[in-house]
Structures are given as C-alpha cells and as structure tokens.
C-alpha cells in the first residue's frame, strides 16, 4: 500500500496521531481503532471505483429499516486478502489479531432475520459485482443489549457509536431536506394546478456511506447508505436571535430524536408516531437522492428513470418510497398523475417477510394525515383510482373492495399498497410464497397472477462458514479444493466423504475444537461451562411464541422427570443452549426467558440430572456470538408452528456448519429437509395445512394434555413449586395459556398438540447421537447440501427474475 512505511509503522503512526500513545502503552481498543484507520486506506479505492462504476448502469436501491451488519474487521481483511499481513504486523507489535477483532463494537442495527438477511444480501451483491445501494438509518442506538438479572431479561442501551464508526464516510455533499407536518392545499397558478405545502417542520438528512467489501476477488464495494438526521440549518440561529429559544431548540430535538433508536419489536407493529417518521425519513431522503443523482449525472429525461434505477422494498416498512417518488415527480418535476404512476410501477418490487397478522403493517389515517399530509393525499388518490378500477371489473362486489383497498375504515394498509404498486411481490421460501398467493394476497393474485414469485432466502457462506469456522473451511478445502468458495454448490463434492471414516473423524474433531472455543467464551462471559462430549443442542433466535421455545422447555422438564424417576438408561448427555432476545414490551416472551433460566437452576441443582442435561441461557445474542455458537452446534432446533415462520435463516447457518436439524415442515426447513433427505433431518409435528385444519375444527388442548400423563407431568412442573424457589404462581399464566387459553383460544401455537411427536423424534435424535459414525455422516451431508442456501444463489435469482442489473 505504502512504499515507504511498513504496515506496523502505519498502525503505530495512527496510534500516535489519534491517541498520542506508543504501542507499548496502547490499549487493545486503541489498537483496534488504529488498525481500522489503516484499513480505511485500503477500502477507499474499492469505494471510489464503485461510486464511479455505478454511473451509466442501472442501480438497485435496496430499502430496509434494518441492516444487521455484525463486525467488519475480520470480514473485510479476509475478503481483501489482507488477513495474514495484518496478523503478522499485529504480532510484531505484541498483539493477537483475534483479540483485536473482538474489540470492535458489533453494530446491531437490526432485530433479527430481516435485518441480517439485508446484511447477507449486501455481502453477496458486492461479491457478484452488482450495482446496489442499500439505504437504511444510522440509528444512534441499535438493538438493546440484553442483561439477565435473576433470570429476567433487562434491557440496556446499545452504544455502538460512542467511539465512532471507522468504516463510514460522511457525505455532507449529498444532504437533503425532509419535511414533516404542515398543511397542503391546491392552487391554480398561471392556469396550472399546483400543490402547496406550508407550515411544515424540516430536518436535514445526511448520508453516511459504508463500503461493503465482497469476496470473490471483487474489485468493487457494495454501498450502504445510512441516513442520519440533523437539525435543519444546524441550529436555527435566526430564530434563536429573535428570542424564540424554545422553537429553535425544538427543531434541534426533533432532529436528534428521529434516528435515536431502532424499534426493538420484530414481527409486531404498534403504530408509533416516531416509527412512522423514521420510515418516511428513510424513504424521502433515499428517493430524493435517487432523483438528484440521476439529474446530476447529466440526465434530464425523468421518463428514463426506470432504466437507471430499481427500488426494492424490504417488507412494508419502506413502502412510503412509492408515494414519495410520486410526490417528487409530480410536485417538483411537473409530471401528470398517469405519467408518474407508470414510471413508479416499473421501478418498485417488494419482498414480504411475515404472515403473522400482528406484523402486517397498518397506520391510522389520522396519524398519517398529520405527519405526512401530502403523502397521505397521494395514497388516498392511489386508493380511489384502484378501487374504481376494481369496482368496474367486479361491479357490485363490495367484499373484494373491502379486502384489497389500501385505505380501509380508519387504517392505511401498507401491504396492499405494495401489492398494487410493485411489479413483483416475492416470498422468502416455497411454502411462504404459496401462502402469500393462496391466502394473504389471494385477491391480488387473481387480479395480477404474474406478479407473484418466490425466492428462497440465503446466507453468506463467506461470513457464516469460511470465516466463522476456519477449521472446517480448511478441512473442506483439503478434501475437495477451494472452488466451493466462489461456487458454494460445489460443497456437494463432500458427499462421498461422508462414508470415509478418516474424514469423518476429522470432521468430528473440528466440531470438538469449536465446542472448546464456545466453552471458553461462555466461561469468560458468563462463568458457565459445559461438558465438551455432550451433544450441543441449540435454539437461537428471537423469542416469540410462534417459534416455540416453550416446546423445547417443556421437553427438558420431561427429561428431568425421566431422570428423577430413574428412567435414563441410554440417555445421551446434552447441553441445551438457548439464546434469545424478547421485545421489551412482550411480557409473555420475557416470562418464557425467566422460565428457561429457572429450568436451568432446577436441572443444575440436581446431582443426577446435571450429569445428563445442562441448560444454559446465552445472554445478549448477537451476530458476533452467533459466529461462535453456530460452528459448535450439534443439533439445531427449528420448532415454529408450521405455517408461521416465513423462512428462517438461522436454520441455514446451522446446517452449513454441520449441525443436524430437528424441525417442523415450515419455511425453509422444508427445503433443507428435501435436500438432505429424511435420514439426516428430524421432522416432527403437524404440517401447515393440518395446523389450519385443526384450528378451524376448534382444537381442545386441554384434552390432549389430560390424556397424556407424560405431557401432563411436564406441564405440572410449571406450577407445582419445583421452579423459582417454590413459587407456585409465577408461571401459572404460561400454563393457563396452554390449557385454558386467553380470549377463548388455548395454546394458539399448538405446543401441546405437537409435544408427543417432538418427544418421540427427540428419542430418535438421542439414538442417532449415540452412534458417532452415523451422526458424523449426517453432519457431513448437511454441510455438503448447504450450498444452495448461499445468498449468492438468492441474489442471482433476484437479479434474473426481478432487478435485471448488469454487472459492474
Ligand atoms: C414494524 C413496524 C413497527 C415496528 C417494527 C416493525 C417490524 C420490525 C421488524 C416488523 C417486523 C420485523 C422483522 C421481521 C423479520 O425479521 N422477519 C423474518 O424475516 C426473515 C428473513 O426473510 C425470515 O427468515 C423469518 O422467517 C421472518 O420471521
């Protein structure tokens, strides 16, 4: 990089100029900062080349409220091929690169699946040289930090930005104004109808670009544009001087609060004003940027916009990009309605990520009218035209209008706006795509059958296999060469090695090394450890009733019952690890966390039980802890009630790292099990159509429980004083939800209904693990068949079917 100075010199110079310390006195944190500083020099050429190369090509704007990036240092060094050089320089300075890597704050700008998917997609578009700009929000606080106190989840703020973020580039030159509130009226000026907007509050949106370095020796970077809000005209001095202190301070506060924090709810929406403002802020800033950039490149014909840009809406959260682009075209560039609409219809596509009723986004009309009056008017007009059109096609049919209208009663239905305006609606697994067509959007599917498609999610095999599990990567490359790195479906070449006993032993040895690493990590962080020879059984994902951590917990109570009654012959020792954050306002989810921790206390206190089962709750699950947990896992628990998990992506990460899955026929589990076959995947439970059927029949969970003494005994543990120091009532709500139900519906997620099938399948898991050859063989087959789930494949499909971008 630099002819005159060695890498070590450059890191030391950065230490001096930033912190005025010599290497001998520097903290690891300072060394991280200085190291990152020198890597920036390497990143810039990639970034500059991308910005240049994007010109003249069709670009994709990938709009998402969340990008759950995880740490950058290791990933960037590996992708640029600079790891060894840096390792050596740091070694010479007396630092271990692995320690320095752990000094980086883990940016948690996402809740879970949807946000991590966006980050995997950026890695893949960068590796495939596609011109993509991710547009998101630079939240000052990402997802809360979870602390477990006395078994309860407590939330602490995540302060990832407090020492600055070394990978970003502030682009003052690209700032735009975003307007909220005020009044909108129409006026004829010089024979032309103009829309006037007055009395609004403004904030300034400033983008910070984060270059995303891909693999495959790519010479370009993906660009993540994170918008931050600042007061309009950086502290309103004129107002201040006029003596209106309060008003000028209000502007300052309005701006600083906008990007303060990520909403910590996944798969749930509760109509908060600030969230609506965040969504509009992202959409308005990004769409203004899109148009400004088009014009600044010397283009003047906005009819050509669809040839220059495509916009992907990641779940409904950035839906407002559609009416915002309409606004810009009509109010700022004089387009007539029909022209603006036909431009927009060519540009937008949408992926749905959830079918849970409570997550389908709606906003109160009144709130929208107040916060974004012009946008509300545009949505109303879209709705009126659409309803008229549908009415003309189905005269007299009110029921269809009631279902598909965008505005219904006092609510604006964001998914309906997307389904109408976007040229493509995508689902994230085969089953989910079918449910979208047959169920959620069945009316739209009748009107526009060609709109619907399904592209199964994926994960980046670079972060999740190559870098998170270097020992396994090495072993794979030793066996089949390294072509799998650029073409992950070549992992299939590993299949014959499943029958090779010496390879199997090496594969098992790698898993053991990873378990040791996990054990050390848990010891350091939480002061707990486990038996390396036990089966590591993991359920790691957000805590939600539909994901059924409770089914896992009840099964552990059942195993405990077996042990204390002496029925433990042939039971293989297991370590059950749970990792899960609950939304702070989701009381039932938080109570389930407490339950898991109390089960851990119960089991670990019993000398007989603790030799056979151990329960660990891994605190503050994050991308960086997943990178240690997943490679060490033997069994992956994917227990969602069939029909509820759109895809799941954790399931793919575990599989790729050689874990076997116990799971329902839900989301991408179905595709995983189709690939590995029934011998190497443990299926249990009702299928999606059976769940639906049982629910319509009126399912009596109480009878299921009382007719099954094994299940009854496990459920009774909840309230018989075994848990929480003899507390009889703490978990009674969990029990009553299961068997009596709240609001009439007991056990909405069919935990009791699937218990027996789960228990019997767990017996098969036990038997399989006892035979280490058989287990090793299955583990290898799981890794071998995981190439399909690389997000490189997902992105290729998006590009072929939806975006049609040319490579840079
Ligand atoms: C909406 C409005 C207001 C506040 C919050 C939200 C909100 C935020 C996040 C709603 C939903 C989410 C996140 C959803 C999510 O992560 N879905 C998951 O997406 C994955 C990627 O496609 C799938 O694999 C998972 O199955 C799905 O649950």
List keywords for this structure.
10-stranded mixed beta sheet, 15% strand, 6-stranded parallel beta sheet, 808 residues, 35 helices
Chain-wise SSE layout:
Blueprint: H1 7-19, H2 28-54, E1 59-63, H3 73-80, H4 83-92, H5 97-101, H6 113-127, E2 132-137, E3 145-149, E4 152-156, E5 169-170, E6 176-180, E7 183-189, E8 192-198, E9 201-213, E10 221-231, H7 237-241, H8 245-258, H9 273-296, H10 305-308, E11 309-314, H11 321-332, H12 337-347, E12 348-351, E13 362-364, H13 365-371, H14 373-393, H15 398-404, E14 407-408, E15 411-413, H16 414-421, E16 424-427, H17 430-440, H18 442-447, E17 452-454, H19 461-467, H20 470-480, H21 483-486, H22 501-526, E18 535-540, H23 549-564, E19 574-579, H24 587-605, H25 607-612, E20 613-618, H26 623-629, E21 635-638, H27 650-656, E22 660-663, H28 669-676, E23 682-683, H29 688-697, H30 701-706, H31 709-716, H32 732-739, H33 751-770, H34 772-784, H35 791-803
This protein binds ligand 26Q.
Ligand 26Q binds next to helix 6.
* Unique bound compounds: ligand 26Q
Question: How far apart are the first and last residues' alpha carbons, in Å?
Answer: 24 Å
Low-confidence stretches: none
Work out the strand percent: 5-15%
| Largest sheet properties | 10 strands, mixed
């Amino acid at each position: 990089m630099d002819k005159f100075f060695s890498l070590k010199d450059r890191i030391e110079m950065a230490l001096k100029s930033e912190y005025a310390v010599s290497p001998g006195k520097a903290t690891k944190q300072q060394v991280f900062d200085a190291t990152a500083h020198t890597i920036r020099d390497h990143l810039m050429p990639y970034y500059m080349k991308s910005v240049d190369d994007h010109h003249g090509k069709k670009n994709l704007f990938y709009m998402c409220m969340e990008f759950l990036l995880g740490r950058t240092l290791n990933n960037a060094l590996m992708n640029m091929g600079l790891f060894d050089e840096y390792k050596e320089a740091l070694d010479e300075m007396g630092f271990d690169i692995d320690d320095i890597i752990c000094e980086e704050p883990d940016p948690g700008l996402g809740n879970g699946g949807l946000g991590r998917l966006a980050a995997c997609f950026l890695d893949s578009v960068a590796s495939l040289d596609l011109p993509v700009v991710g547009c998101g929000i630079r939240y000052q606080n990402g997802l809360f930090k979870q602390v477990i106190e006395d078994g309860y989840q407590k939330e602490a703020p995540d302060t990832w930005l407090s020492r600055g973020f070394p990978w970003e580039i502030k682009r003052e030159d690209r700032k735009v104004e975003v307007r909220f509130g005020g009044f909108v009226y129409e006026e004829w000026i010089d024979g032309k109808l103009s829309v006037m907007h007055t009395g609004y509050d403004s904030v300034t949106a400033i983008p910070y670009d984060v270059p995303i370095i891909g693999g495959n020796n790519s010479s370009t970077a993906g660009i993540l544009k994170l918008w931050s809000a600042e007061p309009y005209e950086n502290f309103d001095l004129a107002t201040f001087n006029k003596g209106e202190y309060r008003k000028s301070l209000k502007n300052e506060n309005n701006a600083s609060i906008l990007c303060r924090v990520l909403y910590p709810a996944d798969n749930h929406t509760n109509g908060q004003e600030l969230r609506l403002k965040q969504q509009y802020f992202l959409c308005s800033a990004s769409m203004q940027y899109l148009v400004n950039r088009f014009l600044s490149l010397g283009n003047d014909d906005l009819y050509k916009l669809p040839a220059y840009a495509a916009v992907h809406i990641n779940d409904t959260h950035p839906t407002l990009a559609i009416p915002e682009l309409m606004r810009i075209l009509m109010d700022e560039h004089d387009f007539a309605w029909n022209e603006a609409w036909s431009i927009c219809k060519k540009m937008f596509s949408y992926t749905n990520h959830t079918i849970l009723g409570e997550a389908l986004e709606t906003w109160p009309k009144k709130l929208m009218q107040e916060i974004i009056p012009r946008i509300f008017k545009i949505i109303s007009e879209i709705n009126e035209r659409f309803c008229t059109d549908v009415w003309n096609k189905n005269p007299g049919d009110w029921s269809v209008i009631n279902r598909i209208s965008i505005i219904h009663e006092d609510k604006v239905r964001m998914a309906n706006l997307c389904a109408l305006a976007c040229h493509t609606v995508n689902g994230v697994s085969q089953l989910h795509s079918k449910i979208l067509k047959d169920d959620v959007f069945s009316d739209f599917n009748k009107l526009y059958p060609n709109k619907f498609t399904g592209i199964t999610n994926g994960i980046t095999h670079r972060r999740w296999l190559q870098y998170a599990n270097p020992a396994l990567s090495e072993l794979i490359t030793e066996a089949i060469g390294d072509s799998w790195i650029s073409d992950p479906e070549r992992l299939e070449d590993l299949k014959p090695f499943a029958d090779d006993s010496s390879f199997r032993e090496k594969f098992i040895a790698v898993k053991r090394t990873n378990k040791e690493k996990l054990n050390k990590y848990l010891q350091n962080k939480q002061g707990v450890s486990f038996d390396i020879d036990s089966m590591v059984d993991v359920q790691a994902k957000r805590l939600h009733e539909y994901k059924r951590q409770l089914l896992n917990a009840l099964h552990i109570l059942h195993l405990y019952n077996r042990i204390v009654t002496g029925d433990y012959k042939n039971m293989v020792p297991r370590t059950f690890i749970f990792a899960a954050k609950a939304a702070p306002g989701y009381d039932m989810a938080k109570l389930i966390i407490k339950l898991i921790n109390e089960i851990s206390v119960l089991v670990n206190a019993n000398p007989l039980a603790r030799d056979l089962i151990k329960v660990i709750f891994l605190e503050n699950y994050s991308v960086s802890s997943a990178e240690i947990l997943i490679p060490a896992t033997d069994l992956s628990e994917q227990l969602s009630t069939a029909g509820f998990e759109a895809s799941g992506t954790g399931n793919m990460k575990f599989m790729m790292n050689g874990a076997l899955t116990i799971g329902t026929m839900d989301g991408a589990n179905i595709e995983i099990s189709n690939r590995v076959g029934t011998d190497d995947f443990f299926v249990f439970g009702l299928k999606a159509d059976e769940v639906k059927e049982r629910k319509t029949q009126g399912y009596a969970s109480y009878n299921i429980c009382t007719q099954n003494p094994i299940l009854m005994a496990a459920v009774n543990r909840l309230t018989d004083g075994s848990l929480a120091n003899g507390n009889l009532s703490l978990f009674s709500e969990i029990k009553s939800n299961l068997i009596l139900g709240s609001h009439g519906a007991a056990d909405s997620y069919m935990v009791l209904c699937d218990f027996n099938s789960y228990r019997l399948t767990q017996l098969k898991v036990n038997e399989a693990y006892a035979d280490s050859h058989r287990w090793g063989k299955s583990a290898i087959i799981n890794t071998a068949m995981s190439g399909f789930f690389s997000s490189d494949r997902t992105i290729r499909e998006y590009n072929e079917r939806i975006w049609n971008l040319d490579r840079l």
